[in-house]
Structures are given as C-alpha cells and as structure tokens.
Design brief:
With 175 residues, the chain is of the alpha/beta class. The chain has one domain (14-173): Uracil-DNA glycosylase-like domain (Uracil-DNA Glycosylase, subunit E), CATH 3.40.470.10. Helix content is 34%, strand content 13%. The protein contains six helices and five strands; from the N terminus they run βααβαβαββαα. The chain has helices spanning 23-28, 39-45, 84-101, 111-118, 152-159, 161-173; strands at residues 14-18, 66-70, 105-109, 126-127, 137-141. The longest helix is centred in the middle third of the chain and has 18 residues, at 84-101.
C-alpha cells in the first residue's frame, strides 16, 4: 500500500494534519477518501469551504489556502496499527514540514494526533496556548472519522472557529 502525497505549499492558511491515510485513501491517492469519513461535510458545514468537495478534489483546496498531510504516511485500517517508531519519525518530519512551509494554522484532525505530535496528554479543543513550531497556531479539532461519537453539530461547531480565526489573523495584518 502506497502512502499518499502531501498537498502543501508555502504560507497556507490552514494545514490539516491527520493520523495517517486510510486504506481507501491509500488505494485512491486522495486524502479523507473513506466513505465513512465526514471530513468534507464538516469543512463545508463549518463554513471553511464554499461547497462540499469530494476527496478526488483534495488538491483543489490548495487554491483556497488549505493543505493536507499526516503525522504518519503509511495507510492502515485503524490508528491503533501505527507503531511508536512511526509516530516518533512522523513527529520530527511534521515539524520540519511546518517550519519549511509556514502555514498560518495547523488543524490537527483529532486530539490523538495532537497528543502524538506535542507530547501533551490533556488539551482543549481549538487554539492551543503554545504552538510546537513558533510562528504558527496549533488548533485541535475532533477526528472526522465516522467512529467518533461526538454529535455532528458539536464537531462542526469546533471546526467553525477556523474561519473566524483566519478572519481575525487577516484583520490583524491590515492594522
């Protein structure tokens, strides 16, 4: 099973970071391709994208200022299959990517992803007090997996803070 390509470029508004690709994403070469994953619906309903995109359109989101990567590149059925060594290597690689590309906001798609990345165990949803890579904002959102037990409205509400955050960042640059 092949890993899927990152969709990244310099100075993205938001870089979305997942655990790792699903088997379906590995098969298709597109992020969040599992039909049970609610990622594309969440982005649209939270006001992040103007329409509900399909996983085949993931690269188009670069034009909107949004990119995609994962802490681990190997596709698996579940995150439980990821090895500690893969997390360690992925954590260091992700830090390098963030420092190089300098996205404004890094949205971790799942608390567990951020816990693996930051080493913190207890953390709130949303903007984190301190970012791992300076000059960026770490934002923690629920996983978009269909296995998540949170109500969809709650998940969307957390993600809906992202457009507000971007507006405030852009407004701050115009002062």
């Amino acid at each position: 099973m092949n890993s899927i390509s990152d969709h990244m470029n310099d100075h993205l508004d938001i870089l979305f970071v997942g655990f790792n690709p699903s088997i379906r994403s590995g098969e298709t070469g597109h992020h969040y391709a599992n039909p049970n994953n609610r990622f594309w619906r969440i982005l649209h309903e939270a006001g992040i994208t103007p329409k509900k995109y399909r996983h085949e359109e993931d690269e188009i989101l670069l034009d909107l200022g949004y990119g995609f990567t994962n802490i681990v590149s190997r596709p698996t059925k579940t995150a439980e299959e990821i090895l500690k060594a893969e997390y360690k290597e992925g954590r260091e690689e992700l830090k390098k990517k963030i420092a190089h590309f300098k996205p404004k906001v890094i949205c971790f798609v799942g608390k567990g992803v951020y816990q693996q990345y930051s080493g913190l165990k207890v953390l709130p949803w949303g903007v984190q007090e301190h970012s791992v890579v300076s000059g960026t904002i770490d934002f923690v959102a629920p996983s978009s997996s269909g296995l998540v037990r949170m109500k969809m409205e709650e998940v969307i509400k957390i993600y809906s803070h992202l457009p507000e955050l971007l507006r405030s960042l852009k407004a701050g640059k115009n002062d």
